[in-house]
Amino acid sequence: MKFALPYLTAGALLGGVFAPVPARAQIGGMIRGAVNNAAQTKIDNMVNCAVNDQDCIDKAHRDGKKVTVVDKNGKPLKDQSAANATTSDSAAAGATAGASDPPGKGAWLNYDFVPGDRILFYDDFAEDKVGDLPAHEDVTSGNVTVVEIKGQKYLHTVTGADLTISLPEALPQRFTVEVTFHRQGGNGSGLYFKFGANEELKFRCDQGNGTIYGTGPNGSKESGQDAAGIGDNDFETCRLMVDGGYAKGYVNSVRIGQLNGLVFPREDKIQVSLPNADDNGSLVTNIRIAAGGKKLYDALAASGRVSTQGIFFDVNSDRIRGESTPTLKEIGDMLAQHPDLKLTIEGHTDNTGTAAGNQALSERRAAAVRQYLIDMFRIDAGRLNSAGFGATRPVAANDTPVGRQNNRRVELVKN
Q: What is the DSSP string of 318-365?
């Protein structure tokens, strides 16, 4: 069986969380081809990449290939300028209703998910070979393989599977989980993240809906609902935000559930169950688990600077995406509540792409955040400066997915 995905708008994060998903791809056929030949057209040292598929473009440059930029139907574009563009970002995936809405508008008006500021685990399967098991997860049951579709790698299963993710430390009181997910058909009940030996907290995400299951002093509880606007063929972004005993779950921009009074052990392992599906299988990528930090003002008062990875941009662009709403609101409210506070907004990237390209992009994006705060929160321009540093100030080694994720960030520096 084959199905065609609608064209999916791809965004990007200066902190680089998500990677692009295919545009109108025949996923069933492409998966079967991907296992054998990486599902990427390579003829005479040429690679075809969708115009908004920055990961494909970056990978081609790294491999010394020439790039032909194509539209969503696979036809070469007359303007090939995007073929030479590079960026340190991965594109934000998900067929999100209102994805083009600006921060604080439309679908993002009441959105309040803020990603953790320190990455504990990240995997987009970029380091895995097509057809192999994933290197960074322990597969304990089921049949899974890594596939590649238009330059983006996914973990794929038809049978369903159970995985264990090992973390470098036990989960803190505040943490977040994010994943890009798609499933069509099958009789499974969704993608699960399970916490605690007895699964005292579970987060389920399925095609267009989700549920949080938890345990408190008075027994078990659950909260969930549908997320409107997600079709059978759409990819979606599933998110969980936990603060002490309070948990909130999201599918794209919709908060699908929330529970409080939860009691569960913080451990250094997370169990993940992938659902079965039809011949096209379930697909997951961009698994991101991050530790939450102090509130922005508390962190600034303590150390004079704070890092955030919750400001998103379109690919190779300084256009701020709607997912940035909660982080921008926290910054704007902080500046309004502390009128003597002055900041420099810094942009930082990893070392993917050219040094000049990373430097210019980080400068433009830092400037865009400054201007947004001036325009939307009426902050005096004299209180805000901006600067970009490209990849020159890493906070971690760039040789692992986690390190690169931590290096892609916006920092606020107290002046």
A: -PBPGGGHHHHHHHHHHHHH-TT--EEEEEE--SSS-HHHHHHHHHHH
Q: Give domain status of residue 215, yes or no.
A: yes
Q: Is residue 231 part of a domain?
A: yes
Task: Give the pLDDT confidence of 16-30 residue by residue, as tens digits.
Answer: 444 445 543 456 555
What tokens were used for 249? 């779950």
Single residue among 55, 75, 103 that ends a domain in this structure: 103
Whether the CA torsion 320, 323, 327, 333 is positive or negative: it is positive
Sign of torsion, CA 44 357 80 320? Answer: positive
**Using an 8 Å Cβ cutoff, are 83 and 56 in contact?**
no
pLDDT at 9: 32
In one-letter notation, the amino acid at residue 44 is D
Beta bridge partners of 182: 283
What b-and-e string marks burial along 306-345, b requiring 16 or more CB atoms within 10 Å of the CB?
A: bbbbbbbbbbbbbebbbbbbbbbbbbbebbeeeeebbbbb
Domain boundary among 243, 260, 291: 291
What residue type is 403 in one-letter code?
G
| Tokens (6 digits) for 327 | 């982080």
Note whether residue 6 is domain-resident.
no
218-263 pLDDT per residue, tens: 999 999 999 988 888 889 999 999 999 999 999 999 999 999 999 9
Q: Which residue has the tokens 């440059």?
A: 61
Q: What is the CATH number of the domain that holds 239?
A: 2.60.120.200
Same domain, 272 and 395: no
* Number of domains into which the chain is organized: 3
Q: Is position 85 within any domain?
A: yes
Do 78 and 32 reside in the same domain of the chain? yes
2 pLDDT higher than 90: no
| Type and span of the H or E element at 31 | helix 27-37
Joined together, the tokens standing for residue 355 give 């040094």
Q: What is the pLDDT of residue 189?
A: 84
> CA of 153: how far to CAs of 52, 85, 111, 340, in Å?
16, 21, 28, 47
On whether both 132 and 257 belong to a single domain, the answer is yes
Q: Is 235 found in the same domain as 180?
A: yes
Question: Domain check: are 304 and 393 in the same one?
Answer: yes
Tokens 């960030």: give the residue. Answer: 409
Q: Which string of b and e fits 57-90 if b means at least 16 CB within 10 Å?
A: bbbbbeeebebbbbebeeeeeeeeebbebbbbbb
| φ, ψ dihedrals at 371, nearest 5° | -65, -35
Question: pLDDT tens digits for 53-83?
Answer: 656 776 665 556 777 877 666 777 655 544 5
